[in-house]
Amino acid sequence: MVRMNITIPDDVSKELRHVKNKSRFIAQTLREKFVTEYKKAMEKKLEESYRKSAQEDSMLVKDWDAAAGDQID
Question: Any residues with CB less than 8 A from the CB of 8 and at least 6 apart, and which?
Fold first, then answer.
């Protein structure tokens, strides 16, 4: 465990006053935030991969059609 000194806004401090185990609450909240941010980053990478894959597939289809003698529109 590490002890930290942090500064938080007054409104957050007021809400936190009602929490019994503040350290556990803050740690759990941060873990949830880290998971959410990680998932967002992975979704973005996945979208980019799908987009790139779709472009490559389109190019392969055109190449295949050209090699097969099919009309390309």
Answer: 16
- Residue 45: both structure tokens together: 């990478």
Residues near 44 by beta carbon (within 8 Å), at least 6 away in sequence: none
Rounded Cα distance between 65 and 73, Å, is: 10
Q: What is the pLDDT along the chain (73 residues), one digit of tens a residue?
A: 899 999 999 999 999 999 999 999 999 999 999 999 999 999 999 999 988 888 888 888 887 887 877 665 5
Specify whether the CB–CB gap between 16 and 22 falls below 8 A.
yes
Q: How far apart are CA 55 and CA 62, in angstroms?
A: 11
d(CA 57, CA 46): 16
Tell me how far apart the alpha carbons of residues 32 and 26 are, in angstroms, rounded to a whole number.
10
